[in-house]
TrEMBL record:
Domain Xylose isomerase-like TIM barrel: 28-265
InterPro entries linked to this entry: IolE/XylAMocC-like (IPR050312), Xyl_isomerase-like_sf (IPR036237), Xyl_isomerase-like_TIM-brl (IPR013022)
Keywords: Carbohydrate metabolism, Isomerase
Isomerase found in the keyword field: yes
Example GO molecular function: isomerase activity
SUPFAM superfamilies: Xylose isomerase-like (SSF51658)
UniProt protein name: Sugar phosphate isomerase/epimerase
Top-level taxonomic group: Bacteria
């Protein structure tokens, strides 16, 4: 398994010097693989030119590899004025910029839910995701579906419906363990068994329900059973990315350090040591 993290998960710093701090902290923990989400203070791909330049140049100084981009694709509902913008301009710009840094994996969400939705709208959701997957494939990209509460890809069962409905070879799944627990509030095992053949990336985060809402916590202190997730992935021979999403509430620098220490204690493999 490949240890990875996200550009805004290591430290809350969003300043013009943030990448030096992010990469110093990450490499000290043995992490050189990154997913791009925030580029300093703005989300990919609508970023400032100078910040984009720093993302590229500072990565070179630290030997950082970018493996995926997460533009917030389809964080809009079917009835939004923005849904067409997501399927055209945001998708196209994301692919264009990803190519500039030799990234061939794009993460998407499953389109947000709306009170205006009807159950048969899932066919429109499948069509939009399938069309996006086809555009991505035409340019040599994989498109990976990330589960998130409030979307058509919220539970394991709903993710499976979308993955099977789209049915493209370049359309895979990001197993976001914390988001799935937030939606289902049950142990991960049932949904994992349903989805494991689709998994191409894993987002690890821990948390608990406190006063009726999900609160993100350092690894090993929450309810999502990260230890069990690692055991399940190892048993099934998973060799992809383990993307550490460590930020808590409030987000502190030690979140990443302590969560990485817990994760390495689970992996117990010298190649993951800093």
């Amino acid at each position: 398994m490949i240890l990875s993290t996200v550009t805004d998960e290591v430290t809350p710093d969003r300043s013009t010097g943030a990448f030096h701090k992010i990469f110093t902290m990450a490499t000290a923990q043995g992490v050189r693989n990154f997913e791009i989400r925030m580029v300093e203070a703005k989300r990919f791909p609508v970023v400032e030119a100078a910040a984009w330049g720093r993302l590229k140049s500072v990565a070179g100084e630290y030997g950082i590899h970018y493996s995926a981009v997460s533009p917030g694709l389809f964080k809009a509902d079917l009835h939004s004025d923005l849904i067409g913008f997501h399927s055209t301009e945001i998708l196209s710009m994301s692919l264009d910029l990803a190519e500039k840094i030799d990234v061939d994996t794009l993460i998407t969400f499953g389109i947000e839910r709306s009170p205006l939705d009807a159950e048969d709208d899932i066919e429109q959701v499948i069509d939009l995701l399938g069309e996006a997957a086809d555009v991505a494939a035409s340019r040599g990209f994989s498109l990976l579906l990330e589960n998130i509460p409030g979307s058509w890809a919220d539970t394991g069962e709903n993710c499976a419906r979308l993955l099977d409905g789209v049915g493209r070879s370049n359309f895979g799944y990001v197993w976001d363990t914390g988001n799935l627990y937030e939606s289902e509030r049950r142990h991960f095992r049932d949904s994992y068994e349903l989805l494991k053949l689709h998994i191409r990336d894993v987002h690890l985060k821990d948390g608990s329900f406190i006063d009726g809402r999900m609160v993100w916590q350092r690894f090993g202190t929450g309810e999502t059973d990260i230890a069990g997730q690692i055991d399940a992935l190892r048993a099934d021979g998973y060799a992809g990315t383990l993307t550490v999403e460590a930020k808590c509430e409030p987000h502190e620098d030690d979140d990443f350090v302590e969560s990485m220490a817990y994760l390495r204690s689970l992996l117990r493999a010298p190649q993951f040591a800093p």
